User: Fold these one by one.
Assistant:
Number 1:
Amino acid sequence: MVIRSIAVLGAGVMGAQIAAHFANAGVRVVLLDVTSEAAAAGLQRCKTLKPDPFFTAETTTLITTGSFDDDLTAIRTADWIMEAIVERIDAKRDLLARVDAVRRPGSVVSSNTSGIPIGLLAEGRSDDFRSHWLGTHFFNPPRYLHLLEVIPTAETDAAVVALVRNFADFHLGKGVVIAKDTPNFIGNHLALFGVMRMLEKVASGEFTIEEVDAITGPAIGRPKSATFRTLDLAGVDILGHVVRNLHERLDNDAARETFVLPAFVERMLERGLVGEKAGNGFYKRVKTAGESEIQTLDPATLEYRPRRPARFPSLDAAQSIGDVGERVRTLYQGKDRVGQFLRDTLGPTLLYAAQVTPEIAESAEDVDRVMRWGFGWDLGPFELIQAIGLQAPPGAPTIVRAPADQTRIVKKNAGASLVDMGDGVLRVDFHSKMNAIGADTIQMLQAGVQEASRHFAALVVGTEAQNFTAGANLMLVLLEAQEENWDDLDVMVRAFQQATLGLRYADVPVIVAPAGLALGGGCEIAIHGDRIEAAAETYMGLVEAGVGLIPAGGGTKEMTLRAADATPAGGDLLPAIQRAFESIGFAKVSTSAPQARQLGYIRNTDAITMNRDRLLADAKARALQRVADVYQPPVRRTAIRVGGDTVLAPLKLGIHLAWRAGRISDHDALIGRKLATIMAGGALPHQAIVSEQQLLDLEREAFLSLLGERKTQERIQYTLKTGKPLRN
C-alpha cells in the first residue's frame, strides 16, 4: 500500500489548502467540487492566501480540478480519497455513498472533519470501504500547523492506520496523534473547555478582553495571539459550532453544561461579529485620520472602544523567568488577579484534561503533543500539572518519560556546543539569542571541524531551536564600526570566512541542517556544507544588502562560483551571474526550502525533510551515508572563471537605470556597484581566471568599506531598533 495520488472532495478553504500541501509533498491531486468552476475558483483562492499554502508557484501544476457529477470517476485511480465538504452529516454521508460506488477497493478513504462522528459517517458503506475508512483532522492552515489528528473506527484496518500515519509523518511533515472517535476529538475538546472558562470571566465583567489576552499569551507559554485574537482568526462562528457540538454530543451531563456560550457571544453571532473574515469580532481594526487603530469589543454593549493596556506587575516581573514551567507556577501561585484568574481557568482546564484523557486519547503524552502541535502551547496539560504541582484526579494517566537522551556535550561556550550524536557523528549546536553568529559561534564551528576530523566520521551543523540562525551579531558589528576598530573587524570577517571554508574542505563530510530562519551568515554556513539537509519550512537568504552590506562570510564568493559552475565552458556568464546578483542585491529570502532551491541556495544534491522533528536524525543519516560512500573532501578552488567587464558593465548599466527610474536610492546603487564588482571578479577588462581567495578578499574589502559608510550604519541601527529595513 502506497500513496502516490489523492482525490480531495471539496475545494473550500480547508480542502484546497489540504490539496496544496499534498502537492507540496509531490503527490498528484484531483480536487473536485460541486461544479468544475467551484473547484477551479477554490484553487485560485488558495493561491492568494497568506501565508502561502504552496511551497512554490510551480507546485500548483500537480493539481487538476473537476466536478462531482462529471469527474467523480477520477477517484478510481486515487490511492487516498479525502472528503472535505461542509460540516453536515447528511451532505457528507450522501457524497460518501457516491464515493463507495466508484472507488477502487483498497483505496484509503477519510473525512476531514473537526468533530463529526467518524463511525456514523461510514454506516451502511461496504465492508472494504469501512475497513479503509478513518477520520483525518488537519488544523488550519494545513501547511504550517504541525498537528494531524487521525481517528480510526473499530473496523479500520490497522495497516491503513499505519499507512496514513507514516505517510503524514514522513511525506506531509505532520505530527500525528491517534484520537478516539469522541466529540471534537482531542484538541478542540480540551482547548474549548479552557476558552469557555475565560469567556465566563469576560462575561462576568471580572476581566477585560485585553487582560485575558495579556495573561494567556507568551506569559504562560502560549502564542502571541493569545485567546481572543486567536478566536478572531479561527472564526467566532467556528467557536459557536464546536461548542454546540460538544454540548449536544457529550454523554456526561455535568460536562455538557460546561459548554454553553455566554449570552454576549450568542449576540455576536447574531450580528455577524465572527472575527477576521468579517472585519470585526472581539477586536476590530478601524482607520481614523489615515491611521489604523485596533479597537476592542465591549461585551456589555457590543460596541467597540479604544484598546486599554492591561497592567499586571506580576506579568512584568515574570518576564525574567526563562523556564516556562517555573514562570507558570509562579504566576499561578500569585496572590494577585493574575494568580486568581489562572486558578479559576487554567486549573480546572488541566484537571478536566486529566479526567477525560482515557476517553479521548491513547495516552497523556498524546494529549500534550496535541496541545503543543495544534495550539502552540509550550507545555501540554500534563506537563503543566507537573510544573504547577497540581494533584491529578484519581485514575488519571501520567506521563511516561522517554529514556534520557544519550547525546554527550564534547565542548561548549556561550554561543554553541559540540554534541556527540552517536555512531561517529559530531554536531555543532547553536544556542545564543536567535542563534546570532558571534566570535563564540565561529570558534565552535572551527573547533567542530577539528574535533570531527580527529575523532569522528562526520559533522552535522544544526539545532533544535526554532531558527537555525538569524545571521551575524549586528550590534557587535555596529559598535566596532562606530569605534572605527577596522583591524578587529577585518580579523572578524577573515575568521568567519575561514570557518565557512573549513566546513567546505573538512576531512569529514559536513551536513548542514537549517530550519526556520537561515539568514545572512546562517545562509553562508549552510551553503558551505558538503550537503544541506533542510527542513521544508526553511526561510533562507543572503540579506546583508538590507542593512547596507554585502555577504562577506563567503556568500558572495559562493554564489559567484556556483554561477560560473552552472555556465557551460565558453558560455555567457552573465545570465547565471545576473540571477545570483538579484538574489543577493534584492536580499531575497525563500519562503520554503523548495524555493531556496530555485534561488540557488540549495542544490540538487541537497535534500529536504518535510517533518522538522526528523531533521537532525535525517542529517545524521545523510552524514553516515556520505561516510559509507567513501567521502573525499573537494580540492580547493584555484581556477574560477569570472566575466570581468563583460559582466560588470551590464550589471552597472542595470543599476544606473534602476537609479534613474527612482527604484533604488544612491546608497542602494553604491551597494549594487560593489556587489557587481565582486561578482565580475574585480575590475578586469575581460574574462579571466581567479582563485577562491581572490573572491573572498574582494567581498571582505567591500564589506569593510560599506561598513564605514554613514548610511550603512544608519540602516543597521534602524534594523536593530525596528526589525525592519531602512531605505535611505
Note: The longest strand covers residues 291-297.
Number 2:
Amino acid sequence: MEPNVHDIIKNHVTLSVTCVDRLYVNGYVPTLQTSGQLCYFLKDHRGNPIPSPALFGPMRNRFLAEIERFAQTNRIPQVEFKRGERKDEVANRLRTRFKAAEGVVFIGVAQEKASSFKARKVRGPKGGVGFDFSRQPVAVNHYYFYLQDRRWGPGFVKIGSYLPFPVKLCLNGHEWVKQRLREQRIGFESLDNGFLSCTNPERLQQLCDSLGPAEVQDFLDRWSHKLPWPLLRKDRAAGFDHKLSLWQLEVSLTHVFDEPVQGRLFFDGIVGDNLDLGRPDRVSLLFPNRHTRRTVPPKHGYRTRVITRGVDPSLHISYRRSDLKQYFKLGKAGRTELTINDPADFGCTKSLRNLGYLRNVGATVNRRLLEQERIGHNCALSQQAFDRLQRPTEEQGYRASALRFGDPRVMALLQVLAQFGQVAADFRNADIRAKVAALLGLALTDYTCGMMTYDLRRLNRKGLISRVNGTHRYRVTSYGLKSALFMSKVFLRILRPGSQSLQDNPDDIQRPLRKALAAVDAEIAHMCDAAQLQPAA
C-alpha cells in the first residue's frame, strides 16, 4: 500500500512544534548612515574642526585595543578564520571546552565585505581643503564574539571594525525555549536545535509563541555593555546607538515520528506524489559521503519507492526572495521550514517589531504546505463536484463557463493551481500567467493579460479561487486545490500515459498493460465464439 501523508501525520507523530529557528538580526546606527550624518558626528558631536578620514584610524585602533585587553583579562581564545573554513565547526569544537553558564567562548576575526565610508579630497573656492564622503563596498575585518547566554544559549555578535560599525546578531529560537524549559523544570529531549520530546507539549508551544522583539532587544542591550564596543558611552548617550532590523528569519514546523521508517514513508509519499506535477521548484536527494556493504541499514529496513538507501530527501519551493523547504531531520523528524530573507515579500518592513507578525506568517505558510500535501493524498471528487466543473453553471447571479476535463488550457490552469508556489502568499495575474503560458507552450504575447483575466474570472466563479477583498489578488480555496489535484493527477498519470500507450506500437506497451489487453481480447473472442459470431467478410 502506498504511504499516505495524512495517515502518517495523524497516527505516527509523537510531537509537533512550531518555533522560530535561526534568527539573524542587523544592528545599524540610524544617525550614522549618510555623508552629512558622518560629518555632523565628527565635527559637531566629537568637536573636530575638520571631518577628516584621518579620524577613522584612531577610532578603529581604540576598538581593537579594547578587544585585546578584554580577551587577555578574561583569558578568551582568539581565532583567525581561514578562507573557506566553516565557522560553525570551529565554534562547536570550542564550545565543548566551555563550562561556564554565561560568557564569551572565543573571539573570531574574518575579513569580509561591508559598506563603509570612503573620502575624496575637495578644495573650496578660497583654497580650503575638505572631504566628500560616500558609501562604498570595502573588505574589512569583522570580529565575532561567540557567546553562551543565560537566556539564549549559544549565539554570536559580529561587529565591523570600520565606520559605520555594522553589527549582526545570530540567535536561535529553539535554544531560547530550551533555556525557559530548564528554568521552569520541564523535561525535554533535544533534537539538535529542536525537540525530540517534551513532558509538557502544550507549555512548550506556548513558550515558542511567546518569543518576541523584547527578548531580542534585551540580548543586544545586555551584551553591548559587556563587550568591547566601537562607539563610546557618550556617543551612545547622544543618540549614536545601534538599532535592530530583521535580516533573516527561519520559522519551522517539526513533526517527530514514532519510528524512523514513518519519516521515510512520509518523504517517499511527498516526493513520489509531486515529481510529475512539477510542484516543488527543486527536489534534492543528499547522499552520504561514503557508503559500503558494511554500512548498517536502519532497524526497519528501507521501504521506499523513490528514496533509496542512505539518501536524505529535501523539497524546496521558492517564493520571491524567500525559501520554503522540507527535509528529514536526523532520521527522526520531518521539518517544514520557511526562511524569510526579505520581510517585504510578505508586506512588511525589516523593523524588529514585525518579528511576531513574520513568525505567524511562517507558521501559516508551513501549515498550508502540509495541508496541501495531505489533500494531495486524499483528493477524490464526488460526482456532483466533478459535474459542476464540466458544465456551465449559474454562480451567485453570474454565468460560470465550464472547465472541461482534458482541455489543454483548463489543464494548464489546474496544474498551476496545484503547484506549491501558491502556498506562500496570495497571487496576482502576473504571478501565474507565465506559468500557464509555459505549460501551453505559448509565448506571453500569445497568452495575453486579458486571457489570463478571463481565466481567473472562470476559476473564481467556479469557486476554485477567491478574490481578496479590495485587491487584485487571489488565493486557492480548499475545493479548488482538491479539484486541481484530482483532475491533474487523472490527466497526468492515467489519461495521458494510457492514451499514448494505446496509440503507439503494441510492442511498446508496458508488460502489465499488454497482458491485460491480451486477456481482454481473448475474452471478447471467446464471447464471440460462444455467440457464434463470425468476423464480417
Note: Residues 280-291, 297-309, 499-503 have pLDDT under 50 and may be disordered.
